[in-house]
Amino acid sequence: xxxxxxxxxxxxxxxxxxxxxxxxxxxxxxxxxxxxxxxxxxxxxxxxxxxxxxxxxxxxxxxxxxxxxxxxxxxxxxxxxxxxxxxxxxxxxxxxxxxxxxxxxxxxxxxxxxxxxxxxxxxxxxxxxxxxxxxxxxxxxxxxxxxxxxxxxxxxxxxxxxxxxxxxxxxxxxxxxxxxxxxxxxxxxxxxxxxxxxxxxxxxxxxxxxxxxxxxxxxxxxxxxxxxxxxxxxxxxxxxxxxxxxxxxxxxxxxxxxxxxxxxxxxxxxxxxxxxxxxxxxxxxxxxxxxxxxxxxxxxxxxxxxxxxxxxxxxxxxxxxxxxxxxxxxxxxxxxxxxxxxxxxxxxxxxxxxxxxxxxxxxxxxxxxxxxxxxxxxxxxxxxxxxxxxxxxxxxxxxxxxxxxxxxxxxxxxxxxxxxxxxxxxxxxxxxxxxxxxxxxxxxxxxxxxxxxxxxxxxxxxxxxxxxxxxxxxxxxxxxxxxxxxxxxxxxxxxxxxxxxxxxxxxxxxxxxxxxxxxxxxxxxxxxxxxxxxxxxxxxxxxxxxxxxxxxxxxxxxxxxxxxxxxxxxxxxxxxxxxxxxxxxxxxxxxxxxxxxxxxxxxxxxxxxxxxxxxxxxxxxxx
Length: 623
Known about the structure:
Strand content: 15-25%
Oligomer: single chain
Strand order of the largest sheet: 7-6-5-3-4-8-9
Shape: globular
Number of strands: 26
Structural class: alpha/beta
Helix content: 25-40%
């Protein structure tokens, strides 16, 4: 079964994950399937070893009573054990329910009760504690701890067990087992419930089939021919995330990609430096963080190094303009840039482990134009694509070499996928990778899926050359008291063009003017302020530093100069803490939960508005 030669997602209509997994075992038994770092050492695991472990765990689940169609929750940090639990669940025809390992007990309770999970895997002691605090443990037949170093303390509930103990001394003929499971599987079987970010309301469980997962992963192969070559990838996003799951579970089944799992996702930056991957896809925030790290390195260099860098940037700007002009490249400028790349930019990219990247994409949120251009100047051909949980892969992608920043490209080059734009600007799409509906939510399913089309909820503009530009979420339009309907996302993107600003949240619903809450970039701002305000010792001090406030004021003014009058920010406050999923104001993939953000910082928001007129009117009405 040569899936690497398939040219359309529609060709996966009769293919399942157990089939492909079995094929990898048969055709590449001694080839490395993935690497896991443990206690300082990188351990290579072959396809035979991987499939042996999956078959053993899957058999143990069956013997414990797991039936086809039963739901199995997995909550844990990035690790090979997560992958094995995922693949074992898929191979026996059960339904994997992904739970972010940073979830609160309340969120876990919702996921487990909504999905009706019968089994649960947890990463280690921390996730076990969260699950137990959710008060759902007694509804689960088994809670299996993935961490191989975890040992029971003796006071655990009877249904809590380590993975080693759960599998016991089971012996299984992996070849026969996988053959049997592959014969039972159908491409239309429900195999996964992927909960959406939940930026508004309760998260919705997107139901995915074998076809959804495989056709969605295959869409990546339509981006660039380089993905068909041997590639390495560091899996660092939560494995409940669609991108991370594709990198770990499904893409290695259809292309020659080898995932690397570090000790923990918390030290992913060091893992990337060690591995130096050739493939990298992440939300814009990660590229901003890495760019800040590189710029900090530049700014701390000697005067000679700074001068060399500035000269190289002048050459890089000419080279990028030359590439994007559409004409024949100037060989003299190209030659100069090649020297700059070797002497200046590649060593800087190596500082963060990006010097071998050949396939680089960003998704999940709009990429600030200046940030994308900066990476291109440094020689990284960063491109943008559009995707969401409900379509697994991507339906829009920047296909041109060295694309201009500011768009999410053109519809995917696959005849099985279609993309259209409604009169109100909402983008709709259909194709083989779509989800089949929301678990337990028929009304939401009817709203999102109509006549085979996914209504994305995203507003787009299509330029004269056919390039799509992401404008905003359909439901995230601010209506000011002046009657203006304003897109907060575009304004936030302008503000985030500053290297000192990590995130911005525009406020203004029902108000006379717009304001913003700003999260400053800890690394860049602390580095900038250390010689300017000696009272600043930690992040929380930045919000009270007069010099920092003045500096951010200048950055906001720059953004305002690029905005229409009605879109300009009239006042702002620097947040006293970094935005985090732990406080409920961000999703695990750093999407803002606007309602929760407003609630948490309401007192701060109140200081942004002069309510004198409103108070006067209320007082007059009370008369």
